[in-house]
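Entry 12.
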Amino acid sequence: MVDLKGQYQDIKHSVDNAIQKVIDETSFINGPKVKEFQTNLENYLGVKHVIPCANGTDALQIAMMGVGLKPGDEVITADFTFAATVEVIALLGLTPVLVDVDPNNFNIDIECIKKAITPKTRAIVPVHLFGQCADMEAILKIAKDNNLFVIEDNAQAIGASYSFSDGSKAKAGTLGDVASTSFFPSKNLGCYGDGGAIFTNDDDLAHTIRGIVNHGMYKRYHHDVVGVNSRLDSIQAAVLDAKLPKLDSYNQARRNAAKKYNTAFRIHPNLVIPKSGTDCDNICDNCDCHVFHQYTLKLKNGDRDGLVAHLNAKGIPCGVYYPIPLHQQKAYKSKRYDEADFKVTNQLSKEVFSLPMHTELEDNQIDYIVNTIKEYLG
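Predicted 3D structure (tokens):
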């Protein structure tokens, strides 16, 4: 699904030098490279504060801790996503409120958010799934009208932009009160281990979060808030800082591959190509609204699992994200949920499949993937 070895060969010199420098300095925790990467990422995103941490799941948990959510508070999020999003809600003793998603872009459905709000609701967690933002303009308005926090789960969309109706744009992860991201190796900006970060433009919230990630300390052995041990190590920061200048070109390479997939599959009667933007299935040359962390198709009136098995047998990695809705997972089942409220998610779980998508995809590889799918489907 990704070609980390090929990507590494292209940046080998800069990555090796950066890692060696960290080793030479022997400053492995909160070293100079962490601060340097933090500053560079702040500048790239146009956000006031980036607080690095150990992984994306920690980042989301810390963001929720930072805004002061308390046990019993309700948090609305999408049913169609990876479990980490709801996992941290449950770990903090909050009440997850799962809602359905838009059938076109797979992101949280705005009308479903409105219906799910109760007097106990305290936050909305939109997941920018597969590489493009949820409808943040609408979400921010709902949050403002109901005095709710907006905590962006930006693990899959770093580098994507969101366009408001007035023509202004902002990077994913800089739109809500606070955001989290993951630097898992397969992400668009990935390290060589685990890593994550929290973003915010709120000075006071940033101060709180900086304490939380370091055992609640601002001064050594003075624990002012309840914290955790979650820090990005210097070697991972060095890898990320070497990759950051190439992030836009990485994302453009993904868009180029997606355009080729789209061209091949657009007219196939059983395949639905992913939407890019709010209402189109085209990818403009200057479009940066989608960074294609995954390229996800829907197979209509066909055997999705049979197709996946066929692709795997032909040496083509193929993922299903996600085969089981969160509301059906044993850990998160609740009598509060009605299957009728999850028609889209339930259908997507039967239809979606994701093709290889990374910066090193070559035309001959795409052609092989496309031809193999068409041969199977007829």
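Annotation: The first helix runs from residue 4 to 25. The CA atoms of residues 21 and 168 lie 40 Å apart.
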